[in-house]
Amino acid sequence: MADHEDYEDLTECGLSAELEQQLVATAKECTFMWTNRDGEAFGVIMAYLPKDGKLWLTAAERRARISALRRFPRAAVCINSTGSSMGPAKTVSYKGSCVIHDDRETKDWFYPEFASYLRPDPAAAEVFRNFLDSPHRVIIEFTPDYTLSFDGALMWARSPGVNG
Length: 164
Hints:
Elements: H1 17-27, E1 29-35, E2 41-47, E3 49-51, E4 54-60, H2 64-71, E5 74-80, E6 90-101, H3 104-118, H4 122-132, E7 137-151, H5 152-157
Antiparallel strand pairs: 1-2, 1-5, 3-4, 4-7, 5-6, 6-7
């Protein structure tokens, strides 16, 4: 890997597949972004469950993001390593499509897995699951179809004199 003269081209500073997988499994929260009815981008921090190459999230049906996703099912997700055991400067962003689920079959597998993923203590997970399982809550199935990642450690490694 060549040294940088500047930071104009960082295409060689993406996460390896292993680091991307580790980041997604470690962070547990993402910035979830969608387009509102005025065509404006908006986002919030949400917890997620990674499963089978998808991210699964949940929200109350009355949240603006749900009606927005029903109108236009495209969204973006950004996950970063700040505050995690991986340290700073690792990110992955995805674009993809969403399906909104409100069926009992999806809720029956999702709530227990999601609760256990976020609350490893079985008693805490059970309490959390019970709070989640409310009449007007839906589940968002996000399927990424585009990925952009960044590993700041690679950028610094290619920056002679910056670290010392």
